[in-house]
Amino acid sequence: MSELESLKRRALDDLKTALDEVGLREWNSRYFGKAGEILAALKIVGSLPPEARKEYGQQANQVKVELTQAYETALAEQKQKSLENSLSAEKLDITLPGRPPRPGRLHLATQTLRDIQAIFAEMGFQVFRSREIESDEFNFALLNMPEHHPARDMWDTFHTTTPGVILRTHTSPGQIHVMRKFHPEPIRVILPGMCYRYEAITTRSEIMFHQVEGLVIGTSVSMTDLKGTITAFAQKMFGDNRKVRIRSSYFPFTEPSIEVDMDCIVCAGKGCSLCKKSGWLEIMGAGMVHPEVLRNGGYDPAKFTGFAFGMGPERIAMLRHAIVDIREFWANDLRFLSQF
Ligand code: FA5
Question: How far does residue 311's CA lie from ligand 1's centre (Å)?
């Protein structure tokens, strides 16, 4: 038997012992790699006498072709076998029911904001968005609180490292933005958004909370319109059976000023920690827009009057759902949030 023939037989026998794809690839590099036996056998051609070269060369090529075919057939069979194995071992049951994604929901504060917006939309109010990062000028000075005005102490403020730039303590600076945009047209807008105060967190006060500001400006807007609007809102929001209390108050940007309280749902008016034992919880401040503020917004106070209010949606949600602690709103506890 020629050397080529015995090389072929040995290689074919070896191929049969390769049990898997790794074994087959090892076989391939042993025979067909750079230092493989086939290459070595082909190289010999150059060292043979010229008359023997042709026949040897043909035989060597023939062996190469046969072994290549044998290898490719074995590899394809092996691949088919491992595919069948994995299909039977890792069975996929496509009849199993799918896993439903858990649907999210709107946060209670967002739901409340939307309810408030819907009630005011029915009364003809438009929504106006205003910035959360404000200037000292808009948050205080243009609202009739010049520097060192004692009323500034009513709002504990978060300051930024840029002098004169603060986080708004209330939505009232939006009044000036809206007036400067629309003057001298009449205005009927609400301004919802987040406010920030550097104050102690209690069961009814957070350092971040929403407010919804309201602003109406026209040539014959009166305190009666303010009371009527607030009462209509409270009845739609809470139903006819709940009590609303309006009492006089002070804000530098309204004159006269009022505060609006709702009866405390948690203790049914008897007195508890949420209502500070008073039976009432304050939900908004309001009043007739101060002439100075009208002027700062571009309106002539001799011709125009207006009313404004600023309410706390979290407090409103607490009074609707008997929530005793405002901290629940931003604690991100799904046991609380998924109840609404
Ligand atoms: C103001 O912020 C005035 N800008 C409201 C206003 C607007 C008066 C327009 C007149 C005209 P006050 O600080 O009282 O007022 O806040 C208004 C409402 O925001 C409160 O009634 C309460 O419902 C809510 N609120 C205030 N502070 C907090 C707090 N720390 N956490 C949660 N809600 C709050």
Answer: 6
